[in-house]
Design brief:
Length: 131
């Protein structure tokens, strides 16, 4: 799968390497095929780290997620610019981002309340699931 050349863009491994090397570059554009190969690379890295995290604890997954965050934002920015959608996302983006953050904080508070009630009444705490 990774050895064949995609329909457009670079070969898969070159596209993945390019995504990593251009991880801090927010200028320019990224073709669709190169972006999706980078997405696959990020997914594979996070899947491998999650397997390790199940054995040793959540810290490796948290570190890997933080390390992937900036290159992911850079790749998404370049891809949106290539598709001509960056201005639209910038003008509408903060409201959607703020809503998402608000939902996450509400879910976290609800989980904490449920865990506190479980500790208070002697039941087991609710399980936290990774998405």
């Amino acid at each position: 799968m990774l050895l064949r050349t995609p329909a457009s863009g670079q070969p898969a491994l070159d596209a993945m390497r390019d995504g990593v090397l251009r991880g801090l570059e927010f200028r320019g554009t990224t073709p669709r095929a190169d972006f999706w190969w980078f997405v696959i690379a990020v997914a594979m890295v996070l899947a491998l780290v999650r397997i390790v995290a199940e054995a040793v604890g959540p810290l490796p997954l948290q570190i890997a997620s933080l390390l992937v965050l900036v290159p992911w934002l850079a790749a998404c920015t370049r891809r949106l610019r290539d598709a001509g959608l960056l201005i639209q996302v910038m003008t509408r983006g903060p409201t959607h981002v703020e809503r998402s953050l608000l939902r996450c904080s509400r879910l976290h508070r609800a989980y904490e309340r449920a865990a506190e009630q479980a500790r208070r009444y002697g039941a087991s705490a609710p399980e936290s699931r990774m998405l």
